[in-house]
Amino acid sequence: MAGGLVALLDDVAALAKVAAASVDDIGAAAGKASIKAAGVVVDDTAVTPRYVHGFSPNRELPIIRKIAIGSIRNKLLIILPVAMILSQFLPQALPYLLIAGGLFLCFEGAEKVYEAVTGGHHGDDDAPVVLQGPELEKSMVSGAIRTDLILSAEIMVISLSSVESEPFVTRLLVLIVVAFLITILVYGVVAVIVKMDDVGLALARRESTFSQRIGRGLVAAMPKVMAVLTVVGIAAMLWVGGHILLVNVGEAGFHWPADRLHDLEHWFSDLAHGGFGGVLSWTSGTVVSALVGLVVGAIVVLIVHLIPKRKKSVSAH
Length: 317
Description:
Blueprint: H1 2-36, H2 38-47, H3 57-89, H4 94-118, H5 133-161, H6 168-204, H7 209-251, H8 256-271, H9 275-316
Helix pairs in contact: 1-5, 1-6, 2-5, 2-6, 2-7, 3-5, 3-6, 4-5, 4-7, 4-9, 5-6, 6-7, 7-8, 7-9, 8-9
């Protein structure tokens, strides 16, 4: 009896070790997948605060909570089933999905560059949000969730591509972990960003000179933080979008662009030894990917915006 009990405990301990190793593997894979999708995450974080701009402070966090819940639903109820079915039964479609996603990221990044250069934007509602009632809040939340669907699809597909060789259950668990991890990260950061002004104002009203100084500093810094976040988001979109295109066009059969990028990274790596060579290699690949993203995105912007406008102008005459 005692021997049987010891054997059972040994089996339980072995199973526990296997389970712990599996959890570690899933955590590591989820971390890797999340890092690979970092460019889209930065863009998602940069885009979302505009949906609460102009609302009264007491509505900001409830709106962010609604968008975050919508984001989780997007990832788990819409994107996850489609991604898992495709990865299981039509894995050859994954590179083409990533190419489509890369084109979208390049388009979004190039369009924002175009708007920054020309001074134009897509916002068409100039009236203060607080004067337009709960219907506009509902509309803004719906719009944010629709935008999130596209960005979340990019995050999930990019994450899936990093674990496509794993078993079905591992892929499923990794994507679930990524879904929650990215949502908490993005909307947690967004909540901090949009409430930072309020924190600064509260500190500025205190009697302590030190608190007032910190409060005024926070209020003054937030526009600059948002500006930097916007620039980083655009750069990340172009870099990630361009890199996705280069790599997955190769996966689809046209290897020349990815091979040339690989050769360039090796050439820069050979210029220096040790860690600095790795930095040069990564930097060169990132810059080239971003330039490819900008060029390809500019072509898509031209097709989507400028050519239809020209046709309307010609037909008007």
